[in-house]
From TrEMBL:
The lineage of its organism: Bacteria, Bacillati, Actinomycetota, Actinomycetes, Actinopolysporales. Residues 76-85 have a biased composition (Basic and acidic residues). Residues 57-85 are annotated as: Disordered. This is Uncharacterized protein. It comes from Actinopolyspora alba. Residues 61-72 have a biased composition (Pro residues).
Amino acid sequence: MTGHPTRPNIALSHDPEQLNRTIHDIAAGRATARQCAETASALRHLSHELSDHAAVLAFGGPPPSEQPPTTGPTPEEPRKREDSE
C-alpha cells in the first residue's frame, strides 16, 4: 500500500435517470416489484462500497475484505531454517 487511501470502485449499476424514475414511480404508487428489487440491490451494493471506503478513510488501511492473505512468512517474520546435522 502506498499510504494513500484507495478510491472506491463505485459504479451504480442503475442509470441515474432510472433511479430517479423509480423514486417518482414509488411516490406515485406505480412502481413494480421488480423495479423496486433491482433498485434496492443497486443501492445495497453502493452502500457496501461506501462503507468499505469509509473504513479506509477512518483507519488508514484497506477494509478486511481487501487485506492480503496472511499465509507464508511476512517481512517481519523471516523464514525458519531447518538445522541439518
